[in-house]
Design goal:
- Two copies of one chain form a homodimer.
- By secondary structure, chain A is α/β, with parallel strands linked by helices.
- Chain A has two domains: 248 residues, Aldolase class I (TIM Barrel), CATH 3.20.20.70; 91 residues, no CATH class.
- Chain A has an eight-stranded parallel beta sheet.
- In chain A, α10 packs across α16.
């Protein structure tokens, strides 16, 4: 049994399991290559990486695996004037956290890395698979990727977004259900109208596009993979499940928080980045949510809160860290990436046999 | 192939498919008995029915089927003083809708039917299966049901609620994911903390209880049933899928609205009943949500808005009707109950074979 699907054929991998491109240092070259070597698709979450960091990470991934891997980037959004007008007020609210951490407000030199420079690395390195979220790259970029024979995977939270991605020529689509941890990929409307549970989202999406759909959101084990295949997906993307691996670069306290959480622990918040994302509730979220109307939109708030998140990490203060996690969090285990891929595959095959045999 | 599970054995049915006990006239004896005769479990949604109406409906169900059926009731909640203090203000806000419909505020004689009287009918009629939501009945009631050999099914939206239901002796548990249409069954905490997508909820729930778990929320076809079995559920409960059947008593405009909706059409709202419920967005919801803080809690608001919903129904004004629906709504079809049960079963078996054969 190989669990081969249209997705495994498209990507040249053994099992239809993608490790999500979680940004912020979680997806170390060690994690990415371990997933690839186990037969899945590892993804470098490069959204916050400089071009130089990306180049080094890609080099290191290639040193550890000769299998296909993916790089994930964030599609840039224009910086909104209104967001800039909120900077002073939100910094006043965040002063208490900086005081608590013993830091002073950092000078912001840029709100994000340059997407063009990041993309240049993807093109120059001839990355085998490019995945993205928060929007759709320009036609020129998509054409350049295609000339490179890079396989392109977009992210959709609604059927209409999936239809738009397919029309623009992507090779596969991640359908992100409301259970998913981290940032919402919504780009075609309001995020509140795009919180569709994975069970409902996937069959509706596969009915409207021809390219393979990859289910994400709440998928943690073989039960989730088999369920996703049943719904019509050609594979799964799992983030939280890989976050607690020893190979993951997530903060030790983040891993601990995940392993101690349950399905009710997470919340959607704009507090950290200005863009809705799912993470484990903490003091920073609960206090900032009281000032929701003055939190600047992404990427402004993301840049502003960076010093706080960074200092909190150094001081092991989970109160002020962004503890991204999905709603499947109670199923988290501390296993290696290889064990996760193997166990998901074995459990899927085992379950399939069990359901089949009792009928 | 029979798709037999622990649930089909427990309930004495052929297929692990339960038609949800939607209240408000949707679950006609004709719908309930058609589902039972097709091999599933039909449920009379009796939450808003008088004891006399219940008795007549049960009699009619028995005239049309000799198979097991279920009756669903709402566990009563104390009427909150604060809710009563909001009556005048919310009626002021709702005046514009009454004016539009050409009606005047009705005199409220009671907020709900008497649960004790409703339950008396369940006991006297020796209903084969009793399901409930919004809480847990008293131990005396549970014991009386057990003495009657009535099988008892509770509703949980979190793992902790499922654990509590099992400890109190229920025979099976509906795990209600955030995709589900109609009222949230949350009773063990805040509803905002209990909106777990079905894909994430079911495996976490089955890991913590021994009784069969029934998946609900976003399940519309064989893909949803097979996915639910993969997640560890022993069956599914489907509401929206049966609402558009010709046998359903839902308003023709409600059915039409469902058949014309997509996965982004629904929203959770307290507007109609004071308790969060998922339905298709309309003018009543959008206007009332602007006054969310003065909407009395359930069952007060439910009683207050009844005249508006009733007049809107008579006048075919979907603007003021409660158009309950789940997030799987784009998959709705206008098929008979028998066709739905048969198609779900055949699709499930077919899918299972397809997934198996390609491996």
């Amino acid at each position: 049994m190989t669990l081969s699907t249209k997705l495994t054929e498209l990507l040249g991998i053994d099992f239809p399991i993608i490790q999500a491109g979680m940004a912020g240092g979680t997806t170390t070259p060690s994690l990415v290559s371990a997933v690839c070597n186990a037969g899945g698709l590892g993804t470098l979450g490069a959204g916050y990486m400089s071009p130089l960091q990306m180049r080094e990470a890609i080099k290191e991934i290639r040193q550890h695996t000769n299998r296909p891997f993916a790089v994930n980037l964030f599609i840039p959004e224009p910086i909104d004037e209104q967001a800039l007008s909120k900077v002073q007020r939100v910094n006043q609210v965040m002063k208490k956290f900086r005081d608590q951490l013993g830091i002073v407000e950092s000078q912001i030199t840029k709100f994000t890395e340059s997407f063009e420079d990041q993309l240049e690395v993807v093109l120059e390195e001839k990355v085998p698979i490019f995945s993205f979220t928060f929007g759709i790259p320009s036609t020129e970029i998509l054409q350049a990727l295609k000339r490179n024979q890079t396989i392109i995977i977009g992210t959709a939270t609604t059927v209409n977004e999936a239809i738009e991605l397919e029309a623009r020529g992507v090779d596969a689509i991640v359908g992100q259900g409301s259970e998913a941890g981290g940032h919402r990929g919504t780009f075609g409307g309001e995020f509140e109208d795009s919180l569709i549970g994975t069970m409902a989202l996937i069959p509706q999406m596969v009915d409207h596009v021809k390219v393979p759909v990859i289910a994400s959101g709440g998928i943690m084990d073989g039960r989730g993979l088999l369920a996703s295949l049943a719904l019509g997906a050609e594979g799964v993307q799992m983030g939280t499940a890989f976050l607690t691996c020893p190979e993951s670069g997530a903060h030790a306290e983040h891993k601990r928080a995940i392993l101690g959480s349950n399905e009710q622990s997470t919340v959607l918040t704009r507090s950290f980045s200005g863009k809705p994302a799912r993470g484990i509730k903490n003091k920073f979220i609960s206090e900032m949510e009281q000032h929701a109307e003055i939190i600047p939109s992404y990427p402004v708030q993301n840049a502003l809160s960076k010093d706080i998140r960074s200092a909190a990490g150094k001081q092991n203060q989970t109160d002020c860290m962004s503890l991204w996690a999905g709603q499947g969090v109670r199923l988290s285990k501390s296993k290696t990436a290889e064990e996760i891929v193997r166990d998901v595959v074995n459990q899927t095959i085992d379950l399939l046999g069990k359901i089949q045999s009792r009928n």
